[in-house]
Amino acid sequence: MAAIDHGADAVYIGASRFGARAAAGNSVEDIAKLCRYAHQFGAHVHVTVNTIVYEHELEDTMAMIRELDEAGIDALLLQDMGVLSRILKDMPDRRFQLHASTQCDSRSVEKVKWLSDRGFQRVVLARELSAAEIGEIHEALPEVELEAFVHGALCVSYSGVCYASQYCFKRSANRGECAQFCRMKFDLSDSNGRMIERQRHLLSLKDMSQIDHLKELADAGACSFKIEGRLKDVNYVKNVVSAYSQRLDTIVKEHPDRYRRASQGRVSYYFEPNLQKTFNRGFTSYFLQGRRPDIASFDTPKAMGEYVGTVKEIRGNSFNVAGTATFANGDGLCFINEEHELEGFRVNRAEGNRLFPMRMPDNLRPGTGLYRNNDEAFEKLLAGKTAERKIELEMEFGLTADGFRLTAGGQTVNVNFEHQKAQKPQAENIARQLTKLGNTPYCCERVIMKDEAESYFVPSSLLADLRRQLVARLAEAAEGRARTVVSATSEGAGTNLIWQPEYRNYPYLYNISNTSAVKFYENEKLQTIEPAYEVEQKSGRPLVMQCRHCIRYSLGYCVKRGGQKPTWREPLYLTLGDGRRFLLEFKCDECQMNIYAE
Question: Phi and psi for 168 in degrees, rounded to 5?
Answer without folding.
Answer: -85, -40
